[in-house]
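Crash report, auto-generated. Payload:
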Amino acid sequence: MKNLRIGAILGALLMVAAACSSTPVGKAGGTLIVALPGDIVRTDAALMDDSNTSYVIQQVVETLVGLEPGSTSKVVPVLAESYEMSADGLTYTFKLRSGVKFHDGTDFNADAVVFNYERFIGLPTELRDYAFYIGDIFGGYGSESNLESATKIDDLTVAIKLRKASSNFLLTQTLQVFAIQSPTALVLGKADNTEADVTKITAATGGAGAMVGTGPFKFVKWVVGDSVEVEKNAEYWNKEKVAYLDAIVFKAVAEEAQRVNGLATGEIDLAQTIAPATIAEITANKDLQLIDRGSSFNTFQISMNHTYAPISNPKIREAIAYAIDYDFLIKTFYAGAAVRATNWMPAGVAYAKDLNLPGYDVEKAKQLIAESGETDLTIDFWYPNDVSRPYMPDPKGLFEAITANLEAVGFTINPNSDGWREGYLDDENQGKYEMWLLGWTGDWAGPDNFLKTAFFGYKNGAPSKEFAYKNDALDKAMNDALAAGTEAEAKALWETAQDLIRADMPTVPVANSKPQAAATIDLKGFIGSAALNEPLNLVWLDRP
Amino acid sequence: MVGLFCIVLFASAAILAPLIAPYDPYAMNGSSLDAPSLTHLFGTDLLGRDILSRVLYGAQISLFVGVGAVAIALVIGGALGAIAGGFGGRVDGVIMRTTDVFLSIPSILLAIGIVTALGRGMPQLTLAIAVSYAPTFARLLRGSLLALREADYVVAARTIGASRLRILVRHMLPNALTPLIVQATLVLATAIIDIAGLGFLGLGPTDPRTPEWGTMLVDARRFMQAAPHIVIFIGGAIVISAIGFNLLGDGLRESLDPKLKR
Amino acid sequence: MSDQHLLEVRDLVVRFRTHDGAVHAVNGVSFDLAAGETLGVAGESGCGKSVTNLAIVGLLPKPAGRVEGGSVKLDGRELTTLKEEELRQVRGSEIAMIFQDPMTSLNPVLRIEEQLIETIQAHREVTKEAARTRAIELLTAVGVANPESRLRSYPHEFSGGMRQRVMIAMALALEPRVLIADEPTTALDVTIQAQVLDLLRRLTEERGTATILVTHDLGVLAGMADRVNVMYAGAVIESGTTDDLFAKPRHPYTVGLLRSIPRLDGETGGKLVPIEGRPPDLVDAPVGCSFYARCAWRTDRCATETPALLPIDGGTGPIVTSGPTATHVAACFNPVAPAEVAEGRPLPRTGGATR
Amino acid sequence: MGRYIVRRLIAAIPVLIGLSILLFAYIRILPGDPCVAILGQHRTPEACAALRENLGLDLPLWEQYIRYLMNTLSGDLGASVVNSQPFLAEFLTRFPGTVELTIGALIFALGVGVPLGRLAARKAGGRIDGLITGVSLFGVSIPVFVLGLALVAIFGVILEWLPTQGRIDARARFDATSGLLLIDTLFAGRLDLFVDVVRHLILPSIALGSIPLAIITRITRASVIEVVNEDYVRTARSKGLKEQTVDNRHIMRNAWLPVTTVVGLQAGALLGGAVLTETVFVWNGVGRWVVDAIQNRDYPIVQSTILIFALIFLVVNLLVDIGYALLNPKIRYQ
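Recovered output after restart:
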């Protein structure tokens, strides 16, 4: 346990050193046009739960600790100069950077940090539904929150106290949700307006007080449904990392084809995600570059709800796992930029081991179906019809191919689909779907983020309605692992958990993809990260 | 002439699809995104399915949904128009104000609204398109009937004491049908485009594998540069069918109703 | 020719191209018009009366209609070969027209004022004010009450008779030398007809305007015209002074026309007799007499040979083509004897009745 | 004239009432709990209770309807299920985009359609007429989205003549005041940006305008051919008017009448087509928004957008009728 945390601190120190290493000097100026697959949803970091918002907000507001650019697990200090944990693992003391100012000119100090953390604990009831992560990570609000208190020690020192030890605390604090915003701005923007009509909260809707942080870029405006504009913060505290760019415009371009068209015509400089189908086209264009983000940090799976027959039968689930032509899916839909999943979490995550998952074997699948004794092989199968996700670049195509695989071994599929945001996620979350396509992109590189938060952790002491997967031993193993005293203990518990999951085959993991970005060839200094923490202050445009 | 050719092409593609399609439109039996070749005349899609076969079966869907929708629209609109135009008075007023309401909503939005409310699927799609065209037919039939009310033979029938219903059915309706038939043909062209439009917006048939033209076009759009032939073939199929029905409608108009000739 | 006529039409041929073939609308029409004279033109619908008039001013519907032969001279100036712009200057200022249906001949979306003024300004360099003053004079002259306020009106605010008065005012606005009135009163109520005709006669007499008055109403001609041309199937088949023609019609068609209208002069015994059959289809080039099929006086010669327009009594003197002494001519091999005019003759039922 | 407008306004009332009943019913015939339909994922029991109270879901239907009507009339058109933003505020930020697009399309359709129709009418029956008729047939048969894709591919990606997405160069970082960029850029004295906005408008306008263009071409042709044969045109010629005067004053003044009516009817088609066009061209307008709303089951947005579009359609047609009356004195004085 100690080793683990010391490791993190060491990492932090290493990072400081890395920051001093010389980078090629970029060219200042210019406006970067970034195409995101969708518009942002909120301008209040605390209320954020989607990758588009996160991508924009990370350029503007900063957290106490962050991930090293390009890494998914290396915690580095950002607004905190250093931090240390008490022996009992319950108190974290952050030493804050001095001389940092928010974009509104107010000081960043212990008061500001305390204000923000107290807000995380006591977010108004009406806003809690909007703030998925805070409640999820700390287990609730107020007295239910694992965050007990945030105390100012001196002007530049803050102590944050937890109710019980949590090995993932530091890692979770790298999430943009925990960014420190200017208290003055939050008050101005009625961030905690007790009427809690979110539309009256200008801090959350792009008006006064919106996105006032300490980052290398300042929020300028949000044209709802279309674009967000930020501009260079010339007063950025890290003088070596003051942005090269004058401004960035994040455009919502849902249409994959239009993202590539825009790159080709020069209307877009950077497409944050691209469809694998367009990779060939991008590599063929000498004015464009494909950006690889290194290892995978996501899992795509065929999700299943155990309330429904025949999914409730483990043999059927195993049979499904044998029925899928994984190589075809990876070749066709990911253009090779993915690997066959060997686990429910990507290989890079701590403790992940190869679980020797079933391969494509039609005969074996048929045999398992015969053994299962199920006669009604009809399955309601769902896919989202209006999005693509990094782990699932073409949900419709994947659905079609998987359906064909399943029908080939004897299943009857009822095809269904719905829109992503209000329909699909809501309904699958409520347990309305029997089988559906979904995956998870990691927020932090802990096994808990995948196995527990995303997938199989109990919610409110019971199996989630989403999967209805009941395995008390698994839930206990995961909870114990998080509170484990030693690294070895944690490792053993997480391995037990993985074996338990493998035995039940609650869902069928398919692939870990490596979502790629594309940019104009003039774009320099971009460091791709599988976790999409890609600060754009280091980026410059090499054009006249 | 060209119109007839397009229609024959379209209708025979639709009806004969099971016979003439070289492959099963659902079978993934080629490699991904093949260019047109002798084995796959129109090439293959991402999943290796034969595009020619899918375009042919797509004609079936457009034809069935289109004709179904226009038929339903004709029945609903025709009935309302006949009642309004045949009997007049307050009934007429109510029916006409109702059609005004529906006509004030852009037809594709109306169809979208209906599909979102009823859920996706072929019957819903058919109904949605039908409802958006019914008011046009109602107005048209009513208009012709009103004009006919003053026609000499109708006045004559009235003076000899024929019942209103009899006059409507025997004397007026047969003479008012021509513009309706012409309009129905023209609307078929629009219906085919609207079906594809709904598919394009992701409101097509529930089964994503269904070879519906609009849905196929959205998929193909991503390969616009890599495999432009897919978009061209599907887009071409839509345009040719629509041209066919438009030409047929114009032709019918000219041959059936010289008064409308312009 | 020393005594040049104001308007000379010679062997005018007009054809229309249609999908069914060329329609021979006018087949060699010739006539003259002297200054101050009123020439009546009679005939059934579709016999080429209006087409002749349109051809004179070059307003045949384009591109179907074309003058394919003959000449039209105004004061010795050939009109058929004029450029469009030159012809335009003739129209309205030297030759003006009044059309049949006053309900449709005025532009419904323009005020009377605009329509009158544009006529004047198209030919005269005058200010709008001057043109307006002139317009008021004209309306007064044609008997429109409150001309100043009526100028601001739209055509639909006028009755049919009033509209035709406006048309007359418009036609006479530039004191044209020739006025072509194409069935000017056909569309009007009988009571209004007389008023309008009276007005027309008065104004043309005052101004000495030569007039071509087209009508199928022989009664109107009797009262208005100095001379009458009877047209049939695109040709003049009888011509003479009004008195001659009404007193001694020679062509069977003219006789038929006269017998098919009620006589108001109290002459009794004249039963109304319609002309049987229909005018020939002008698509085929005519062979023989065009009236052959409907003619009770026909002979075999009529079927193969086209009769020329010749003096009725075979006289050899010079043919006078205008004025009160105009020669009475007819195109017929077997003219109707004066005695037969009142009685008529039944149509022979034998041979070639249909062509 | 005033009386005519008043009469037309009164005639619109029953349609508006019918429309409100239809849209009132819309949310209530949706499957499931209206609370889910109206509040969506983030509903809390309290919010549902408040909604029930506000809409009076327990009251008799007619009373609920009255409430809906009162809310609507007072400008409360509901709020987005996705982000809780009130409808009207969000609508107004997107509406200028749709306005510019539809006006662009209309200008294209009229600007090209009317001259083409006149040309075809003048050459009626000839080869040029045949060509124009063929083009208009093609125009009415090609879906907006197919044409849009083709235009983007050809003039955007291959030839690189025109931009393919958005309303203005994003690099311009221009602050729009009214949202109507054509006007905003001019007022800001940014002629370069004005040109840029126009360039962005071209392809979407062509895509959206193609069907109205085809229809306007046909109707202009038919109308001119009909008017050309009218007696008053012959009268005008017989008066010795210049051909140009005859054409502009006598023929076109009358031929415009049916064209005007068709333009009004096309307003609905344009608004509907905007939905697809905006999707293709990443255009920030109401159309793209409503497509998102549909996917997200954002029923209040769908409902109120339909209401507003229908209102616009009615208003445009009222304006067209007034224009028609101005052009046609017969109507004006009736």
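Post-recovery validation: Confidence is low (pLDDT under 50) at residues 351-355 of chain C.
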